[in-house]
Amino acid sequence: MRRAALRSVRLAATTSAARGVRAGARQAAAVTLLPQNAWAPVRSAAFSSISTDHVEVEDDEDLAQVVLEPLPARSGFADQKELDDFNFSEKLRQNLEAAGITHLFPVQAQSFDVMMQGSDIVGRSKTGSGKTLAFGLPIVETLLTEKRPPKDPRALILLPTRELAIQVAEEIKRIASPLRIVNVVGGVSYVTQENHLRRGADILVGTPGRIQDLVNKGSLSLDHVQISVLDEADMMLKFGFQEAVESILGCVPGDRQCVMWSATFPKWVNTMAKKFTRDAVSIDLVGDEETHVPATVAHKAIHAPLRSRIQVLENVLRHQARGGQTLIFTETKQEADEIANALTGQSVRALHGDLSQGMRSSTMDGFRNGSIKTLVCTDIAARGLDIANVELVVQYRLPHDKESFVHRAGRTGRAGRSGTNVVFFDRQDAGDVRDFEKRYKFNFKHAAPPLIEHVLDGAVHDAAKRLDDVPSESVALFNAAAQRMLDERGVDALSSALALLCGFDNEHLSAYSMLTGRSKTQTVEVSGAAHARELQELLSAFDSQLSRRDIHSVDDKFVFDIPHHSVERLREHLVANGADHITISPVIELSRVLVNNQNGSPKDGNSFGDRRNGRFGDRRGDGNGSRGRRGNNDRSRSFDSSFSRGRDRDNNRDGHRGGGNGGRRGSSSVFGRFSEPGRSSRSNQRGNSSGGFRDSW
């Protein structure tokens, strides 16, 4: 009978003694390892000589409470350890050095010895922290030491998407010579994969659907599997892969080792993990008090109503054109296509499950080599992808679940690099923004949509780089025509060419308010010695429509909206009225998120309702805004779950959501109307939903 007790250990150093005790480790009553932060050389250390530090756990205790204590917070990855601190086999050491790997990240160091003892693992680590090699290293070390191995796979790695399976297989190949790595995913010929399996496979990497098919056809035997790995386990068990995973794991030997890794482990995943693991050791490098996203990621929130969101997105991409690559997340395949098609004049592609395997592969190849700068994708499509040069993540719509937020944001800032995570929100999303801050213990900066001059600067810089790439032979062909146009039109000829090259041929650039999202509106701040009464009198004289309620105090300054074309005229007004000590400038960023409680209407007194349970609990409307809904969801609200299960998707979803026009709960603005997003409710279903960025944005 399977033992349900779970163990928790303190672990910071790794030893690799007892490589041959995989079966014996399962009989141990407790795991015995070095105390935390004892990074001593291990070549002379014996397993039996290490002091005991363990906790016994009752059968019914939740796995979420049985975790390794996280390492102390440090900047970047300064706590990497050199290879000399580990007793690797000579062949693995040669492979690591050939791959240019000289240090291990903490997650890799902490998991190595636990796996080498044969223990099952349920692990949680921040995105971008090196989880692939955390299970890849001990698998390779174990298989390299075996003599006369069988042709059938000895290690099985399951992943939720084809792209992630390809990425993991390539990463392990770098350190696995001469082991045979076979990748089996959907969308590829069965014949080709069956031929690879007949030639022999040591490590099998793939998606559940294709592996299950091959087993059912008799083309794949899992009788010799010693180690099974579920990577991105929360996604594996959440999006309909549970049945296939259970079927596959039912075909492997009962005494095999099972390892599960993810960046998030909600309680329901812990419950499922108990079905697949025995006496599991839990490794947690996140901890309850830490953010799940690397500290190198800056978080910015932009108020962008759906009616103008695509234009704001274009401006964001143009502004950061000097930097690296961008991932844009949305929740549906249809919207991913629509966004990619709308972003004219930019190197953009969509990535989702309705694309053919060939199209997805070419898209990923282009994104990895940099020829494609921006990828618009669904959550499942991009889960776990590791692209080093992703400097910006844009969450076009906020995700429905908190785990997706972590995985989205974690596509940047990987392995100690800096990155920026931008979320677009509308008035009804304000409470969700605050929920994310509370859950993951960070603060969004409220960023203004890029200023027109900054957008132009980025676009022209990008155009100049493209001009530099034109071959001199091609340039010579147009010299005569160019000179003729300059003579006839002067600088207007070059200006028109730049507008066309930058994608501004059919549109007029607009400023957008950071407080309401209105177009042709600029949010400005006042600096200099000014009192509220003095400022209000000056502004009323300038525009009688500007009232005291339109002026807001934040970060020790006054902030308000005016028409974009009136900014210079306001400066002149202040000087003419002897207020030249007051300066007006566009707001770039605020320390906290402010939200207009009036849906952009200066006279509308409605405010946010009461939010009882937050984004991820039940919602009940209190007041006149309550409403419920059950029924079918159309395609625009369906998840992209087709990456390893084919294209079947169930768009029917029962749900109940209510909202209310309840009373407003406190305002952070001394003048009213604006407040920090907090405990507010939505009366409608949410259909609206620093590397690379210049310091000015």
Explain what this protein looks like in three dimensions.
- With 697 residues, the chain is an alpha/beta fold.
- The chain is 32% helix and 16% strand.
- The chain has 22 helices and 29 strands.
- The strands form eight sheets. Strands 14-15-13-16-17-12-18-23 form an eight-stranded mixed beta sheet, with helices on both faces. A seven-stranded parallel beta sheet has the order 7-8-6-9-10-5-11, sandwiched between helices.
- Helix 6 links the parallel strand 7 (181-184) and strand 8 (203-206).
- The N and C termini lie far apart (60 Å).
Structure characteristics:
single chain; 697 residues; alpha/beta; 8-stranded mixed β-sheet; 7-stranded parallel β-sheet; 22 helices; elongated; disordered N terminus
Provide a compact summary of the structure.
The protein is α/β, with parallel strands linked by helices and 697 residues long.
> Main beta sheet: strand number and arrangement?
8 strands, mixed
Task: Give the fraction of residues assigned to helices.
Answer: 25-40%
The average pLDDT is 74
Low-confidence stretches: 1-78, 598-639, 643-696
Query: What is the rounded distance between the termini?
Result: 60 Å
Q: Tally the helices: what do you get? A: 22
The oligomeric state of the chains shown is: single chain
Which strand-content bin applies to the residues?
A: 15-25%
Strand order of the largest sheet: 14-15-13-16-17-12-18-23
Gyration radius from CA atoms, angstroms: 28 Å
Which structural class is indicated by helix and strand composition?
A: alpha/beta
Total number of beta strands = 29
Q: What general outline do the C-alpha atoms trace?
A: elongated
